[in-house]
Amino acid sequence: MKYTRLTKEQFEELHQEFINFLATQSITAAEWESIKKDKPEVAEEELDIFSDLVWEGVLDKVEYLEHFSANQMFLFNITSIQINLIAVKIEKDDIDIRTPAGYQWLQKNLMDDSVNLYTSSKVLKEDRNKDIFALIQQGAVITKGDLYRYFDTVVNES
C-alpha cells in the first residue's frame, strides 16, 4: 500500500465509486460478499488498492497546502516540479494564530518586528504525490491557495 487506507466514513462516502471499482474487475455484489467472507486477505487487498487509487486522484490535483501551529503558518504551493513555501513565524509566546483573536492580531500586525516571513523552494523527488502525502500526514490540509497567494504578494512587494 502506497498511502493509507481510507476510513470507514470515507468508504461510505465513496460507496458508489467502490462499486464501480469492483465492477471494473468484474466483481459482482454477491462475489464481493463471498470474497469478504471466504478470502478476507483478498478483500483487504482490494480495499487497499481502491484507497491508493482515490489518494492518487486527490493528490494529482493538489496545488496548495496549509499547516498551522500556535506561532507558525506554513503555506505551500506545489507545481509539477517543485514545492514553494511561505512560512510565517510569530516571535510572541502569547499569540496563537489558530485562534480568531490570534489570527486577527497577525492581520493587524503583519509588519511588526515580531512577525517573520520566510520563503523557500524545494525540487520535488521522483514521486510528487508521495511528497504531498507526507506533508498531509504531518498535518497539512489541502486548500484553494488564497492565503498562499495573499502572502506571495506581500513577500514580493517587500
Automatic annotation (TrEMBL):
Organism: Antarcticibacterium flavum
Domain of life (superkingdom): Bacteria
Entry protein name: Histidyl-tRNA synthetase
